[in-house]
Amino acid sequence: MAAISPLPIRARSSLPTYPNGWFRVAASGDVVADAMFPVTYFGRHFIVFRAPDGSPRVADAYCPHLGAHLASHTGSLKDGTITCPFHRWQFETDGGACTKINYTKVIPPRARLKMYPAVEGNGMIMMWFHDQDAEPDHQPWIEPRLADEPWLSSEPMQWRMHAQQQEFMENIFDSAHILELHNSETLPRFVSCDDHGTGMTIILDIDVPDPEYPVSKCINHYSGISVTVQHNLSRTENFIAISFTPVDEETVEMNARIYFKDLGSDEANGVFGKMFTERWMFEVEQDLAILNHKKHLERPLLCAGDGPIMRWREYARRFYSESPAIAAE
Ligand code: FES
Ligand SMILES: [Fe+2]
């Protein structure tokens, strides 16, 4: 088949580019003491680092003095102090205040890094992003069992998606694609869909689990439209921490990691570990092959059996400063 020439997202979707909410900016293990971890999201540069007590911090990467990238050249973080490589202003890593300028005793009162709220959980560091700089109105769902119990984890998985942020998460509400695109033998049944304002918990039952994908119940905890923790149950269980963070106007980074119960033998772990991971990754690739070219239809033509897609869109629209209109034919 001939290749499709890509169209920019804005030509395929009228949804606002960046939603508001909590977004993964690093894996927990990426950010160590005494080091800045530079990242690019929302078309901007940020640095992720740890305060002296180990808690995560996210700041604009640019020095408030004359705009040097703090992690460029000889920029450093040592003993709780970030030193800019350009004129060597120093900033403390708890709140970002400037503490020293070598060539003056008068520190400008506004000399402070621009910090963003940050939390850690589900194996990742998340920052609060709001396009109008509003404070967080909720906290993300943190699955306590991931921190409290031992898990075998998959390798970290990452994809670059050329579709608007909310498209991938609409997937789970699109029941028909599970049969028709993923060739699943059974259709998950929506048991409940609990919308609690800034998050959503969706429970699905799968009556006859596919032997290659042995899940009989799937509980999804959504935080906004950017992070979800999926709890899959069968004879055993796993959690999948999934996140979507816009890199710029054309790219969304998807990250995922699967946490498995140790079943005590390589053979048993292989069935619900390696096999599950391979199947899950295969289905993500199938989804992306569609989503990277898909148009967001504001008025989709839905039929019986399509799943509660508009319920998802009703939920998703509240995470934009200007809510998009929603309607189905
Ligand atoms: S730009 Fe950072 S100290 Fe001047
Ligand atoms: Fe899918």
Account of the 3D structure:
It is a single chain. This protein is α+β, with helices and mostly antiparallel strands and 329 residues long. Helix content is 16%, strand content 32%. The strands form four sheets. Strands 12, 13, 14, 15, 16, 17, 18 and 19 form an eight-stranded antiparallel β-sheet that branches. A four-stranded antiparallel β-sheet has the order 2-3-4-9, with no helix packed on it. A four-stranded antiparallel β-sheet has the order 5-6-7-8, with no helix packed on it. Bound molecules: FE2/S2 (inorganic) cluster (FES) and fe (ii) ion (FE2). FE2/S2 (inorganic) cluster is lined by residues 63, 65-68, 84, 86-87, 89.
What is the fourth-level CATH superfamily of the largest domain?
Naphthalene 1,2-dioxygenase Alpha Subunit, Chain A, domain 1
In which range does the helix fraction lie? 10-25%
Question: Whole-Å distance between the termini?
Answer: 31 Å
Structural class: alpha+beta
The overall pLDDT, averaged over residues, is 93
Per the CATH scheme, the topology name of the largest domain is Naphthalene 1,2-dioxygenase Alpha Subunit, Chain A, domain 1
Would you identify the CATH architecture of the largest domain?
Alpha-Beta Complex
Helix tally?
6
- The succession of helices and strands, N to C, reads HEEEEEEEEEEEHEEHHEEEEEEHH
Question: How can the largest sheet be summarized?
Answer: 8 strands, antiparallel
Say how many strands there are: 19
Model regions low in confidence, pLDDT < 50 over at least 5 residues:
none
What overall form do the CA principal axes indicate? globular
| CATH C-level of the largest domain | Alpha Beta
Strand content: 25-35%
- Whole-number radius of gyration? 22 Å
Bound heterogens, unique: FE2/S2 (inorganic) cluster, fe (ii) ion
Total number of domains: 2
